[in-house]
Design goal:
Helix content: 25-40%
Number of strands: 9
Bound molecules: phenylalanine
CATH class of the largest domain: Alpha Beta
Oligomer: single chain
CATH architecture of the largest domain: 2-Layer Sandwich
CATH superfamily of the largest domain: Bira Bifunctional Protein, Domain 2
Structural class: alpha+beta
Order of helices and strands: HHHHHEEHEHEEHEEHEHEHH
Length: 343
């Protein structure tokens, strides 16, 4: 038989082959591309072809081989696509989905975020800073004298072999950092974690959270502070909320006060948190001491301001009826999962 004709026939067969399944595809592969394929013997025919036709013959044969390879690839692709189609049709749309376990927000974060939003609404801007702080920002700049008990190792965690670095004992350290870097008017809140060397019990822990507030401008008065804090209490604890300011002392404010919010003693938790008085101690506050302004490069003759530091944990415990502060830091998922539905 004429080998040229044979090539032509094979080429037509290849181009016309269709496959329905993997078996038929494999048959095609064995026939045209396998080790004993039907194209191979034709190469041996080369020596019988007339010299002037050898080149043409070689080219046609190569074309046949590459056509077989190309057709195989095409058929294979077609098959996987149509099989994919089959599979898609078989998806059971009524099958229940695998539920993805979503985390929950920590009660401290929930309360902290709510407080932040309340202050942002009246123009306070969030500032965050380091937890490992220099003694100067935490104490010296804040007008806390060298011999103040708070500076004692008994109360403060100093970094190993250091008298300079410590874990901040309050977010007031951010006040100093902001005043050093910004010009008044300043209106910031600084949420974050603080540390004190305290015995851990149901009521107190060696780590907790605060939100610091600082407002400095010309002519800021104690009345402005009271108004701001009353607004905060109403937004946070309800519009009927009663507050009281008790005179207090902080080295960095003068005059100073502590603010209590009326909670009553209806539940075990409020009874315990308020020590039976019904008044929950929520924050410390006061007019920024002129020494602090001067320490941080702000002219105390021109500017005045107020500052406050809100404790978060107590409010979170009151809100969610949590009787032991340790629960907030143990990361027990059985406890944390209870806050799934709270945003
Ligand atoms: N830093 C004080 C504390 O931790 C709270 C406070 C902040 C008081 C700002 C007055 C002004 O108790």
């Amino acid at each position: 038989m004429d080998v040229f004709k044979k090539i032509q026939e094979l080429l037509e067969d290849i181009e016309q082959t269709m496959v329905e399944n993997a078996d038929e595809l494999e048959k095609f592969r064995i026939l045209y591309l396998g080790t004993k394929n039907c194209i191979k013997p034709l190469f041996a025919e080369m020596r019988n072809v007339a010299n002037e036709q050898k080149k043409d013959f070689g080219q046609k044969l190569n074309h046949l081989k590459t056509s077989a390879e190309a057709r195989y690839k095409l058929l294979k692709e077609g098959l996987t696509e149509s099989q994919g189609g089959e599979e898609k049709k078989q998806i059971d749309l009524t099958r229940p989905v695998k539920t993805q376990a979503l985390g929950s927000r920590h009660p401290v974060s929930i309360v902290m975020n709510q407080m932040i939003t309340i202050f942002e609404r009246i123009g306070f801007v969030v500032e965050e800073d380091r937890e490992i702080e220099e003694d100067w920002y935490n104490f010296t700049a804040m007008n806390t004298p060298e011999d103040h008990p708070a500076r004692d190792m008994q109360d403060t965690f100093y970094l190993k072999d250091s008298t300079k670095y410590l874990l901040r004992t309050h977010t007031s350290s951010v006040q100093a950092r902001v005043m050093m870097n910004q010009k008044p008017p300043i209106r910031i809140i600084a949420p974050g974690r603080v540390y004190r060397n305290e015995t851990i019990s149901a009521r107190s822990h060696c780590q907790f959270h605060q939100i610091e507030g600082l407002y400095i401008d010309k002519g800021v008065s104690f009345a402005d502070m009271k108004q701001t804090l009353h607004y905060f209490a109403k937004e946070m604890y309800g519009h009927e909320t009663k507050i009281r300011l008790r005179p207090s002392f902080f080295p960095f404010t003068e005059p100073s006060a502590e603010m209590d919010v009326w909670m009553g003693t209806d539940t075990d938790t409020t009874y315990r948190l308020t020590k039976g008085t019904g008044w929950l101690e929520v924050l410390g506050c006061g007019m920024v001491d002129p020494n602090v302004l001067e320490n941080c490069g702000i002219d105390s003759e021109v500017y005045t301001g107020f500052a406050f530091g809100i404790g978060i944990e107590r409010s979170a415990m009151q809100r969610f009826d949590i009787s032991d502060i340790r629960l907030l830091f143990e990361n027990d998922v059985r406890f944390l999962n209870q806050f799934r539905s709270v945003l």
